[in-house]
Write a structure and sequence with these properties.
With 196 residues, the chain is of the alpha/beta class. The protein is built from eight helices and nine strands. Strand 2, helix 5 (97-100) and strand 3 form a beta-alpha-beta unit.
């Protein structure tokens, strides 16, 4: 007799037989429905991901456009001998040190830099990003609770590279390297994927 049983079904039965409350199964089911969250190890078992939907989101095109406007305004002010106007957004990379040491989106600062100098960025909309948007959504929720204007960059750096936009090192030098946890992420050929 050949019986074909889905492995997820078996795992569910085993957990239920161990008297695990059914509510503990919800985060895994939610992650299975969202492959972006499941593919980021930082998101893999975090039930808080389900509560981040109330945060406004911003797209790659919107981020790119705002950063271009900021650069153009700063260049114009420099040519005119005036101070640069305050930027509309502050782009905050919330990824790990290993990830940001590979590359960042041009114009971004690290979470640590933002936390040290929050007052310097007062009045700007904070746009956090990570690999795909899960960690940045959690950070965005925290900032919103603190009363700051915030928009999560859903898709984050992997959406940025999918659009084949430039990356830089923390020192501002152009790079083609991008950190991605898994080979399952589609990284365009113009980039070199780093996983360690």
């Amino acid at each position: 007799m050949n019986i074909n049983i889905d492995s997820r079904f078996c795992a569910t039965l085993i957990l239920l037989s161990l008297a695990v409350p059914a509510t503990s199964l919800v985060p895994s089911a939610a992650l299975a429905a969202d492959p972006q969250k499941a593919s980021d190890p930082q998101n893999a078992s975090d039930p808080r991901n389900a509560s981040d939907s109330h945060i406004a989101e911003i797209s790659t095109d919107e981020v790119r456009s705002l950063l271009e406007q900021q650069r153009a305004a700063a260049a114009e002010a420099e040519r005119a001998g005036r101070p640069a106007p305050q930027a509309e957004i502050v782009l905050v990379d919330v990824r790990s040190e290993a990830e940001v040491n590979v590359s960042v989106i041009p114009g971004a600062i690290t979470k640590e830099e933002f936390e040290k100098h929050r007052d310097k960025y007062a009045g700007r909309t904070v746009v956090p990003y990570c690999a795909v948007g899960g960690r940045s959504a959690r950070y965005a929720s925290k900032l919103a609770e603190d009363g700051l204007p915030v928009k999560n960059y859903k898709g984050s750096i992997l959406a940025w590279v999918s659009a084949e936009l430039p990356l830089v090192t923390l020192q501002g030098k152009p790079t083609d390297r991008v950190f991605a946890f898994s080979e399952s992420h589609h990284i365009p050929a113009k980039y070199k994927q780093v996983r360690k």
